[in-house]
Structure formats: structure tokens, C-alpha cells
């Protein structure tokens, strides 16, 4: 008769929790000698999580299968659908997928819609077409009214701003001073 059979699981747990047992386990008693099959993929006991937990158990997640109706196979690749998304959806994809290919895809589509990434402010911006054209301040900067996308408040904000062309991300196309935005 094994130790587990002699005491049953509650008795085994009591022994493990006792001072004598914990010192025996820390002194190198082979836990396999308790008669438990530790190599089994099945749980040792349906509601047993650990002998050291204050709460007794957590429910075991039952086996399940996904119904075939939920499997969708005719979805086009995301890269082919980027141009159909709204600006806000592209911003969502951009901000929710850092360092991912889809972040680059969203950035490329935003760039094609005249949004530009300001590296210093870490924000998307574009010229405000409803306002007067920006005025050239120097060879590498201009002053004008721009629309910024504020990701923290999830809204567009109109601001007067002095734009230095060197602060714009150049990965999606060269920025020309006369057509910076």
C-alpha cells in the first residue's frame, strides 16, 4: 500500500502541511515514493492545485471543442485591406501592435493619407487643409496649423505649430520641404 493510498489525498495533504513532512521533503525525500504518478498529463486530483495554497482549489477548465461554424477561412490578408480602414482604425492598429508588421502596414497607409509621424512628439500629424497654407520660417521648417492625433484622448486636435522637417519620420517616403505634409 502506497503512502497516498494509506492516508488518502486529504491525509497526504495534512502530512505535507505538517512540520515533520515539510522538513522531510526539504531533506530530500523522493516525492515519487508517495505513490503519485507525476508523469501523467491528467491532473493528480480534480480540485487539487497545490498543498501550499490558502484557498483549497480552483475549478479545472473543462475540455471543449470549437464548433465548426466559428472557423473562418475566407478572410483576406490584412495587408490587402488596410486602404479600406478609417483613419481611427489605422491609429488603433498602429498603437495596439507595437513592433509588429501590421504597425508598419498601418503607418504606411496613414502616410499615404498625408499623415506624418513626428519623432520628437511621438504623434501623428497632418496639415489642416481648411486653414491657410503654412509659412516657410527657414529652409528646414515652417509655421502653420496642423491636425494632431492625440492617442491618449483618442481625438484630433488642431494646433498652430512650427514644424522642423528633420523631426518627421522618413521611412515611408522622402519628405520634401515644399511638400512636407
Automatic annotation (TrEMBL):
Keyword Transcription regulation tagged: yes
Limits of the NOT2/NOT3/NOT5 C-terminal domain: 47-168
GO BP, one annotated term: nuclear-transcribed mRNA poly(A) tail shortening
InterPro entries registered for this protein in UniProt: CCR4-NOT_su2/3/5_C_sf, Not2/3/5, NOT2/3/5_C
GO cellular component: CCR4-NOT core complex
Keyword Transferase: no
One Pfam assignment: NOT2_3_5_C
Alphabetical UniProt keywords: Transcription, Transcription regulation
Similarity comment: Belongs to the CNOT2/3/5 family.
Protein name as it appears in the record: NOT2/NOT3/NOT5 C-terminal domain-containing protein
Organism: Aureobasidium namibiae CBS 147.97
Amino acid at each position: 500500500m502506497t503512502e497516498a493510498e494509506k492516508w488518502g489525498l486529504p491525509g497526504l495533504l495534512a502530512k505535507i502541511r505538517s512540520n515533520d513532512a515539510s522538513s522531510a521533503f526539504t531533506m530530500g525525500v523522493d516525492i515519487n515514493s508517495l505513490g503519485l504518478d507525476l508523469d501523467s498529463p491528467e491532473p493528480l486530483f480534480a480540485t487539487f492545485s497545490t498543498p501550499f495554497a490558502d484557498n483549497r482549489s480552483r475549478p479545472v477548465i473543462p475540455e471543449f471543442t470549437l464548433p465548426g461554424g466559428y472557423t473562418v477561412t475566407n478572410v483576406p490578408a490584412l495587408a490587402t485591406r488596410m486602404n479600406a480602414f478609417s483613419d481611427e482604425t489605422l491609429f488603433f492598429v498602429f498603437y495596439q501592435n507595437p513592433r509588429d508588421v501590421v504597425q508598419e502596414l498601418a503607418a504606411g497607409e496613414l502616410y499615404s493619407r498625408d499623415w506624418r509621424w513626428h519623432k520628437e512628439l511621438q504623434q501623428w500629424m497632418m496639415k489642416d487643409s481648411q486653414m491657410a497654407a503654412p509659412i516657410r520660417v527657414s529652409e528646414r521648417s515652417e509655421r502653420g496649423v496642423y491636425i494632431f492625433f492625440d492617442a491618449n484622448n483618442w481625438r484630433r486636435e488642431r494646433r498652430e505649430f512650427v514644424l522642423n522637417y528633420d523631426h518627421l519620420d522618413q521611412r515611408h517616403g522622402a519628405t520634401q520641404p515644399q511638400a512636407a505634409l
